Amino acid sequence: MVSWSEDSGSSEGSHGRYYQYATSGSDDGIVQIPATTDDSEFEGKDYVLCHEHRKRAERLVAFEGIHTGRRFLACAVKDGKNCGLVEWVDPSWPATMKNALSKLWDIYEESKRNRTEDNLMNSFAVHNLTQEKIKLQASYDKLVGDVQALLD
Q: 61: which strand partners?
């Protein structure tokens, strides 16, 4: 699980900005960033470089959890070791907004779980109905055969 707290692991960068380093509980060195969405109006800073790879940081907009809608810069390296540099461009949401986002994401996750469970139950029902149809078809074919045998 990635830590996205804004207090720990940050250091003051140039121009008084605070850079954040995400930490990952995984041992493979790849830092998971939150799901993102496109924002064509986010034309942020080109000068921020990833401290390990010396490449431009990628401009992203969070679309997951209590940081939904916040813009940030993250390491652009996709394969291998992602150093996890994160600079939040937008300020942290107020507590009421975080609570609302948390509740909305909980509702979304519950809805997704319920939909998955419904799909599973529907697939069981379809399977059972298909098996019943096969049995009925076999019974019908047998009855047709018996009737034809009586008529012959």
A: 37, 71
